[in-house]
Automatic annotation (TrEMBL):
SMART domains (alphabetical): BAR
InterPro entries found in the cross-reference section: AH/BAR_dom_sf (IPR027267), BAR_dom (IPR004148), Endophilin_SH3RF (IPR050384)
Coiled coil: 153-180, 205-232
UniProt key word Cytoplasm: yes
Gene encoding the protein: SH3GLB2
Protein name, per record: SH3-domain GRB2-like endophilin B2a
Family indicated by similarity: Belongs to the endophilin family.
Domain BAR: 24-285
Compartments, record wording: Cytoplasm
GO terms under biological process: membrane organization
UniProt keyword annotations, A-Z: Coiled coil, Cytoplasm
Organism: Seriola dumerili
One GO cellular component, as annotated: cytoplasm
A Pfam family per the record: BAR
């Protein structure tokens, strides 16, 4: 118990000394040991790497899983060291709904839903494979850096900062001890000073000499510990270059996985379009258009697109005395007696207007 109390008191004294040193540095009342420029650049580079890696990691999580509730659930399972249950993708769920609906309809619409539903399920399966590949090849290395390497670097940097405060506190204590020793070593005036005071002055000078020696020893120890910790921290910070190389390789793997995923989706959609094109009545028109198509087929017109296209010779004058006209090209009115028209526009005008400007119709 006595040992624990002494250890606690020693720790509290050390914390108080560091707090005093830190406060005096902020107030400009104490000197601060500055690190070399290369070391400062290494720390700045490490901070930049950590900040941007964290942002990229968070946004990649949002890209792969937009649902925040699902991300929280996966996070809890990870912290509890339990495997998260398999989750169906939105594409697979949509495909399942389409296929279930097709069973109820039993029409050309239903048969089309079956084909589209199968494609959506294949797209969902490809998406799930892409998510798993990206999580392993890209997200995991980024998370390992943030939760592993960076925590180690931060811990060593905090330790280095504490040792720097101890070193500067030793420098300040040695400086004060030397000043006190210099004052005590001043030769006293024997004519005005009693022998008793002279003895006290000599004793004080000896005490301050011992204090200086003790402070110098503490400074040497603090300097050695600080240099050793600075070297350890420097090696860790220089390892950021290796981290960049590793993340570059992971980034290439992520891009390859993403390209393969979109390529697979494109192939699935092309196959779906071909299958839909082979289905009968895949894009059947309404009853009116069907009757018009049948009449056109009897006259030798084979293309359904041509059936929907309005021809000038097919436009007949209505019973009201007006007629429709299709504009062949754009025309800007020259004055108030003319009309401004756009190409392919169907215009209802009186007969005398169309006769006045026949070149526009």
């Amino acid at each position: 118990m006595d040992f624990n109390v002494k250890k606690l008191a020693s720790g509290a004294g050390l914390f108080f000394t560091r707090a005093v040193q830190f406060t005096e540095e902020k107030l400009g009342q104490a000197e601060k040991t500055e690190l070399d420029a290369h070391f400062e650049n290494l720390m700045s580079r490490a901070d930049c790497t950590k900040n941007w890696t964290e942002k990229i990691y968070r946004q990649t999580e949002v890209l792969l899983q937009p649902n925040p509730s699902a991300r929280i659930e996966e996070f809890l399972y990870e912290k509890l060291d339990r495997k998260a249950p398999s989750r169906i993708t939105n594409g697979e769920l949509l495909g399942q709904y389409m296929q279930d609906a097709a069973k109820e309809f039993g029409s050309p619409y239903g048969s089309t839903l079956i084909k589209v539903g199968e494609c959506e399920r294949r797209l969902g399966a490809a998406e799930r494979e892409f998510l798993q590949t990206s999580a392993i090849s890209f997200l995991t290395p980024l998370r390992n850096f943030l939760e592993g390497d960076w925590k180690t670097i931060s811990k060593e940097r905090r330790l280095l900062e504490n040792l720097r405060l101890d070193l500067d506190a030793c420098k300040t204590r040695l400086k004060k001890a030397k000043l006190a020793e210099a004052k005590a070593a001043m030769a006293p005036d024997f004519q005005e000073t009693r022998p008793r005071n002279y003895v006290l002055s000599a004793s004080a000078s000896a005490l301050w000499s011992e204090e200086v020696e003790k402070a110098e020893h503490e400074l040497r120890v603090a300097q050695t510990e600080f240099d050793r910790q600075a070297e350890v921290t420097r090696l860790l910070l220089e390892g950021i270059s290796s981290t960049h190389v590793n993340h570059l390789r992971c980034l290439h793997e992520f891009v390859e996985a993403q390209a393969a995923f979109y390529k697979q989706c494109h192939l699935h959609m092309q196959e779906l379009q071909k299958e839909l094109g082979r289905l009968p009545n895949a894009f059947s028109l309404n009853s009116t258009h069907s009757m018009a198509a049948a009449g056109s087929s009897a006259e030798g017109v084979s293309s359904p697109v041509e059936t929907d296209t309005l021809k000038i010779e097919e436009v007949q004058a209505p019973a009201t005395g007006t007629r429709k006209a299709k504009v062949l090209y754009d025309y800007d009115a020259a004055d108030s007696s003319e009309l401004s028209l756009l190409a392919d526009e169907i215009d209802n005008n009186d007969v005398y207007k169309s006769q006045k400007h026949p070149s526009r119709y």
